[in-house]
Amino acid sequence: MKPNELILIVEDDDAISKLLTISLFEYGYKTRYANTLTLAKREYISHNPMLIILDLGLPDGDGKKLIKEVRKESKTPIIVLSARREEKEIIAALDLGADDYVTKPFSASELLARVRSTLRRVHHDISPQRLTCKDLSIDFTTKEVMLNEALLKLTPTEYALLRYLMQNANKVLPHQQILKAVWGVGYQNEMQYLRTYINSLRKKIEKSSTRPEYITTESSIGYRFCQCEHEKGDE
Asked: Whole-model pTM above 0.70?
């Protein structure tokens, strides 16, 4: 994404809104501001922002309602910025379609990094033929996975899991979401399946299973895969 894209800030704390506006402006992003759910809906419809930074505790309602409404009609990236740290709140927001979740108090530099990463991911969300992350690459045409330029042998399930993780790189993926996507409806509670295959993948792609570089654990929530580079191939 190019600079000067419009970002909608939905936040009822004026001090936080000003901090976000100044920080985003320094990186070339234009912003709009809404301090209520009602105003946020109006701003979203009127200005079609490229990304939304969303607080959940708004004076006239729960911010998750906006996630639900936006997801009915678009894939506009949403980063939740909230003081709610409960696991159920984080999972609920991600399950509704939020792209990321940052808890308060927060680091402005970290949030900006999340914004840039999310916008890069959206920019490249074009069904690439190949994804690369560090020394690991996956080719969707040949279904080959390479690590340090050597062919990696994976089972069909390991390949399906790795593909899903890499296609959603740098995004927090709840356990149940991964299980449903890879194994199908009815497997959302089969946590042991997921742990077993995550451990198996880590043994094959990580230098150290105790300090993973590719598949990191989001405590009590799920997993996140490192940032990938997209390749469309020859046209």
From this structure: no
